[in-house]
Amino acid sequence: MRLEFPKDFLWGAATSSHQVEGSNHNDWSEWEKANADRLARESEQTFSWNPNWNTFRSEATNPNTYISGAACEHYSRYESDFDLAASLGHNAHRFSIEWSRIEPREGEFDEAAIEHYRQVILALRARGMEPFVTLWNWTLPLWLAEKGGVMAPGFSEYFERYTEIIVKALGMDVHFWITLNEPDVYTAHAYLTGAWPPQKHGLISFFRAQSALIHAHRLAYRALKNRFPGSQIGIAKHNIWFEAADNTMWNRLLKWSADMAWNQFFLTRIRNTQDFIGLNHYNHHRIAGWFRKNENIRQTDFGWEYSPESLYHAVTELIPYQKPIYILENGIADASDTLRQEFIPTALTALHRAIAAGADVRGYFYWSLLDNFEWDKGYWLRFGLVHIDYATQTRTIRPSARAYAEVCKTSSLEIEK
Ligand code: IFM
What we know:
With 417 residues, the chain is an alpha/beta fold.
């Protein structure tokens, strides 16, 4: 049986600047240097449950794994990487602009860096791929991090000014903008648990950081719309499918609270300043008496439950917003590529079901086009459709990518009935 996707559906994959470009100089690159030894040591405690730990161990316990360094050298190899994506039938691509390259010093904007991203966009268009441009995927110029980053007085206005520079230079060639990537994940790790730079702990700092980002989004939305009223703007929102394990009042109440706090809060606050809902989806949390009682019958290399069908629930829960939906990220860390080969068709079948249930989904971006730098987990987790040999920068297309290419090329998926 063949599942057909809606007309003009966009198919592609996503990346982000710091994770693939290489040679970035920002708050993360500094933090990596100071924390690589610790992260390498801690990996043993965090990941030794993994049945494949012995395969990863030498890489994961090596401090160099936690230094982004040359990454995928995508900054110079973007054209050949886009050739690969085009050969895989992608007709859209999501990437992010690196603020620290555009404004390396306060108020000084680097024309060569702006020109670079213009060429990136033109390279996508030349290959028939619609660019989805993210303005901020967590990294900050050093001068701004030194002022306090997201909590710096005037952060939102700095972001607005950066947005204005970008939209003035690139707006002619871009229709889809994502102002912020996963602001909730960022603020939770950077301001609540303290796992990421600037390693703050506390509910107050978490909420203050969220407020700053909400304000920044609204200003950026206005800046983009002022110049290009027809442009389509959203954020990439990390939503979890919270499932009440049964119908008891307590579990349903917990599910409702989790939905409100994690899934709905940010989206509701920016309700009038988004043209589409951008969904990043990775996780299912089953609630049975308390949060996260997952069965974990299968797990990805990250330790996340293997749960491709949860995309159906994450998407249908967005129907009440009555906006077009783009899946801006969905994927798994699977170095062996065996789970991924099953994951993509199963997730897409779930997505098709969500569309049939009334969700206005218009595009799907697998995370990620390339293996890349997974933040404080370094390089050993592999999310890519394309395998990267970091020593030689050789790209190898994985079997899952070839199967996904058939879907992209036909905008349909053959499933067993
Ligand atoms: O790699 C990240 C990305 O930067 C944001 N979304 C989740 C991905 C996988 O953890």
